[in-house]
Amino acid sequence: xxxxxxxxxxxxxxxxxxxxxxxxxxxxxxxxxxxxxxxxxxxxxxxxxxxxxxxxxxxxxxxxxxxxxxxxxxxxxxxxxxxxxxxxxxxxxxxxxxxxxxxxxxxxxxxxxxxxxxxxxxxxxxxxxxxxxxxxxxxxxxxxxxxxxxxxxxxxxxxxxxxxxxxxxxxxxxxxxxxxx
Length: 181
Ligand SMILES: C[S@@+](CC[C@H](N)C(=O)[O-])C[C@H]1O[C@@H](n2cnc3c(N)ncnc32)[C@H](O)[C@@H]1O
Prior knowledge:
single chain, alpha/beta, binds S-adenosylmethionine
């Protein structure tokens, strides 16, 4: 599993300025919640019920500033109506969803027209030898790392589905991006 504390510097920059009605997918234990500053309301989903319970506690701590509602659900079946959100956030989740296509289809459904998808993710390495290595290691790695894939072509998939991707930062396999359709 990737040490999530490594990303604490990125978190305020990812969510701090997001405004409107926000959905965070795969929120884990709610590590991002404290960094939201401008969102009006946050809905968060997390399929693991133990993590979701911890996220509910994290939500209680920041609820005096921003209301946060947590549900147990996967990104592939979002329990929200169409066009409900201004922004969707995914931090270190698209490596481990069961179906990236289905998760993106659901995000496309719940985002309002012109809405934004913000991601921090690790993606398939861009050099062929490292991409080969990532694909070779992934069948073993995902068994010990909670379904984390090292070879996900997340950027390609976004573009294939008609997302305009603005890469805000890239460090090796880690990307921070804003995407709109
Ligand atoms: C590496 S953790 C990241 C947690 C948190 N987003 C963060 O930034 O630290 C990956 C999270 O994705 C969640 N996850 C796995 N499969 C998922 C799915 N199909 N839909 C939504 N979340 C999923 C895991 O339960 C876990 O909480």
